[in-house]
Amino acid sequence: MKLYVCWGTFPTPRPGGHPCANAYHALKDAGHDPEVIKSYGFAPLGAALNATGGRRRVHELTGSRWVPALELDDGTVVADSREIVGWAGANPA
Question: Cα(8)–Cα(53) distance, rounded to whole angstroms?
Fold first, then answer.
């Protein structure tokens, strides 16, 4: 299981928390131990400024450069933090 995130999974003062951290903590709380892949960049800036391997892989998987994205061992992809949080709650380890 691979979790593609932007810069990390640390807390931020952002209301509601940071989407990447929310996804990560939901997976951990459900007993999963995802491989975290930092995918530096910022999706709205296009391909040239999102050239990290993580962003390229997320684009291959989802057609978008937005993270977080979860790639399961069976190849299933769950994109968007809310979807990942929901998946984690429904699929404890």
Answer: 15
* Half-sphere exposure for 79 (CA within 13 Å, toward CB): 12
Three-class SS of residue 66? coil
pLDDT at 63 over 80: yes
Identify any residues that bridge with 38 across adjacent strands, giving them in sequence order.
5
Q: Could you tell me how far CA 57 lies from the centroid of its own chain? A: 11
Q: How confident is the model at residue 52 (pLDDT cuts 50, 70, 90)?
A: confident
C-alpha closest to that of 2 among 83, 76, 71, 74: 71
Residue 70 identity (one-letter amino acid): L
Radius of gyration of the chain (CA): 12
Closest CA to 33 of 10, 1, 73: 1
